[in-house]
Structures are given as C-alpha cells and as structure tokens.
C-alpha cells in the first residue's frame, strides 16, 4: 500500500466537484487517518448527500488494513455522513470493537449498533457466515429486513464488496427508495459471481464477472 499525499487528494476532489455533476459518491479503502479526515472535510465542503461507504479495513486474508487511529477517524468523521454503509462481518467487529459475529441474531444486533454510529442505512453483509445462503441485514433506523441469496461455489470472489458498494452508488440516483437500489445491486453482484467462472484471470481468487450481462458467450 502506498498512501497518496493528502493535498493531492483534496485537489483531486475539488477539481472533480468543480467540473462534474456528481450524483453519488462511493468510498472504499482510505488507508490513513490523514486521508480519512481530508476526505471527510471535502465531503462536508461539497455537501455530499448520497454517500456509500464501504469501510475497507480487513483484507480477504484477514489482515488489518487500517491503523487504530484511522479506524477511529473513519468511525467519527466519515460514517455519520453516510447514506449507506456496507461492512462485512470482520469490518463490523472492528467498527464496534465487539466479539466475533457468528450468527444471524448477532448480525441483527450489530446492524442496530452500527446504525447508532450515524449512517442513515446499514447493510451488514453476511458472506462470512456458514451455510447454503448468504444473508445481508439492512436496517434504516425503523425497519430491519434481510436479503438472502444462494451461496455460489466459486473461488472467483475478489472484489465482491467493492463491486456491491459501487453498484449501490451507481443505482442510488435511479431509485426513489434506497432499498430498491440495494436490492438491484445485490442482484447484479449475485449474477456477477455466478458468471465469474467464465473468466480465467490470474491465479488465486479471481474477479467477479462485471460484464456478465453485456458480453456474448
């Protein structure tokens, strides 16, 4: 990981907001506390309302990607600005500083605790649980719903969380109800994972098939 200078990040953001109509913003791995604070300042300065936060802080191999001070900054500076956050279970455990989440009941409680951090909607992803289904828990402060999907047998799962949060951000401006954007994004990702074995890219965990509905077979 090579951090980008924060002055350059701020200049990039200001340049884009000055030149392009931005309907939604999606954040992924920010890396350091300085970057988190710089991005949070820009979000407030440009009055971003449609913000999707994928709190990337634990790698697929289980390595922590953010220092403790960066996690604290993310929790305090970014998450309260978010319309939707999309943590997986290891990330939720870090954000809440809680015991491992091992059951659907644990996820339901954690979704409420995450909502208390300030986002308008929590999408807690259940892909790390065992079982034939992968169930996500959605909580908007009033209603909690569950979105199950069949678990797909494939090693090509690289980028699933990034793809989901990016798809939600892309779909938010097209749907009056954010839950409709979340459902459509999950359907898109499920299809992209299902089609991922059509690809042969590198070794190890390959990517999902982002263009599954565009490429002819």
Relative helix content: 40-55%
CATH topology category name of the largest domain: UDP-N-acetylmuramoyl-L-alanine:D-glutamate ligase
SSE arrangement, N to C? HEHEHEHHEEEHH
Total helical segments? 7
CATH homologous superfamily placement of the largest domain: Ribokinase
The largest β sheet comes out as: 6 strands, mixed
What CATH architecture of the largest domain do you see? 3-Layer(aba) Sandwich
Write structural notes for this entry.
With 217 residues, this protein is an alpha/beta fold. It has two domains: 148 residues, UDP-N-acetylmuramoyl-L-alanine:D-glutamate ligase (3-Layer(aba) Sandwich); 64 residues, no CATH class. It has seven helices and six strands. It has a six-stranded mixed sheet with strand order 1-2-3-4-5-6, with helices on both faces. Helix 2 links the parallel strand 1 and strand 2. Helix 6 runs antiparallel to helix 7.
Brief characterization of the structure:
With 217 residues, the chain is α/β, with parallel strands linked by helices.
């Amino acid at each position: 990981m090579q951090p980008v200078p924060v002055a350059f990040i701020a200049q990039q953001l200001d340049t884009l907001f000055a030149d392009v109509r931005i309907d939604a913003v999606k954040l992924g791995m920010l890396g350091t506390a300085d970057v988190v604070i710089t991005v949070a300042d820009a979000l407030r300065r440009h009055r971003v309302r449609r913000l999707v936060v994928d709190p990337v802080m634990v790698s697929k191999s289980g390595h922590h990607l953010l220092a403790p001070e960066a996690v604290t900054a993310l929790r305090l500076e970014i998450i309260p600005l978010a319309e939707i956050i999309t943590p997986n279970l290891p990330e939720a455990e870090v954000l809440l500083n809680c015991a491992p989440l091992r059951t659907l009941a644990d996820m339901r409680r954690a979704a409420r605790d995450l909502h208390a951090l300030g986002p308008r909607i929590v999408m807690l992803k259940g892909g790390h649980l065992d079982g034939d289904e992968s169930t996500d828990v959605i909580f908007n402060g009033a209603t909690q719903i569950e979105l199950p999907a069949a678990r797909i047998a494939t090693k090509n799962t690289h980028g699933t969380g990034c793809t989901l949060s990016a798809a939600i951000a892309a779909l938010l401006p097209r749907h009056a109800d954010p839950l409709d954007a979340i459902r459509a994004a999950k359907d898109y990702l499920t299809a992209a994972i299902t089609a991922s074995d059509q690809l042969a890219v590198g070794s190890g965990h390959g990517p999902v098939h982002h263009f599954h509905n565009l490429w002819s077979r």
